[in-house]
Amino acid sequence: NAGVTQTPKFQVLKTGQSMTLQCAQDMNHNSMYWYRQDPGMGLRLIYYSASEGTTDKGEVPNGYNVSRLNKREFSLRLESAAPSQTSVYFCASSARDLNTEAFFGQGTRLTVV
Amino acid sequence: RKEVEQDPGPFNVPEGATVAFNCTYSNSASQSFFWYRQDCRKEPKLLMSVYSSGNEDGRFTAQLNRASQYISLLIRDSKLSDSATYLCVVNIAGGSYIPTFGRGTSLIVHP
User: Fold this and answer.
1) pLDDT, tens digit, 9 for 90 and up, residues A60-106
2) Count of beta carbons in the 10 Å neighbourhood of residue A47
3) Residue numbers in B near A96 (CB within 8 A)
4) Rg (CA), chain B
5) Are B34 and A101 an interchain contact pair (Cβ–Cβ within 8 Å)?
6) Which residues contact A26 (CB under 8 A, 6 or more apart)?
7) How far is B75 from chain A (nearest CA, A)?
């Protein structure tokens, strides 16, 4: 019953440091997503992957890179963290069917100082 | 303009009240519609899908108006445990069906 698992849950970075957020799902979903959530802004799509081997930019991709390592795993990398990237990051996955819901990981609270 | 718009609230209501949220979407390629619930510092979770004919799940009723491009959620007999943020979500067709979120509407139910 794991669903979508994200690591780490919390992270503090210094400006300029790099890190990778990991995400894995065990529901055999084709599509995976990375969102960030900021106060008053809702969830904004950073990158998504419609299937293994493909990735596409979302609404706010600048400063991020992603890798769809295999069908289960979709990682998000910050190469040089900036204070503007302080946020809560959610990974999600869904089947590719039209009326399917998305399932979310528990989130990563990232602070860049 | 965001593709999915919601009144952020907060809606502050007493227990037992009926409360309604609306959500508008701008992309006519929108194909499917959902309401999610998000508790403080937690991940969003599906509350209910929204079907063209409208649908009900206990105290919750969702409706879709494609002509006017809006979705509504009605909560009857509000409980303290209904306090949360309610997110309107639209799957927009492209290469994939991408869940696009409104900013959320905050509901506070008080005794």
Assistant:
1) 999 999 999 899 999 999 999 999 999 999 999 998 776 789 999 99
2) 22
3) 96-97
4) 14
5) yes
6) A2, A3, A5, A72
7) 21
Contact present, B87 and A32 (Cβ < 8 Å): no
Task: Give the whole-angstrom CA distance, residue A17 versus residue A12.
Answer: 10
B58 Cβ neighbours under 8 A, 6+ residues apart: none
- Check CB contact under 8 Å for A106 and B87: no
Going residue by residue through chain B (111 aa), what tens digit of pLDDT does each one get?
678 999 988 999 999 999 999 999 998 877 789 999 999 989 999 999 998 888 999 999 999 999 999 999 999 999 999 999 999 999 877 666 789 999 999 999 999
CA of B1 to nearest chain A CA: how many angstroms apart? 12
Q: Tell me the pLDDT tens digit for each residue of A17-50.
A: 999 999 999 999 999 999 999 988 889 999 999 9
The CA–CA distances, whole Å, from B67 to B20, B36, B64, B77 equal 20, 23, 9, 29
Q: Give dist(CA B95, CA B97) in Å, integer.
A: 7
